Amino acid sequence: MYPKQVVFVYGTLKRGFSNHFFLKDAKFLGRGRTLEPYALSDGEYPFVYRKEKVSPVCGEIYEMDGETLLQLDHLEQDPEYYCRDQLDVVLEDGDKLRAWLYFFPVPQGRLIESGEWGVYNLES
Asked: Number of folded domains in the chain?
């Protein structure tokens, strides 16, 4: 049995988007943002590039078991495509957590200066 893991998602894994079903067994902890600024871009998929400091990235925070995290690693092709790493995030209520985030190794796509990708469709 794997220990619980906390993951920050910022793209197609968010509620209302195409890959959210991967999180069906995960516990939603809330919306939040990264403490540090990064570059969020939109290409074929959303990308976060850690070496460019633009703005905090907005997203959702989930708690899941290690098996679900391994499924996300497979989806994100970690470490060949995206690279999973831990960082500090803050929930809307101000609580700070350590969470995994999938970074992209090179800048790519159209920069999203606001730090938030996509429009929510919470009914999905």
From this structure: 1
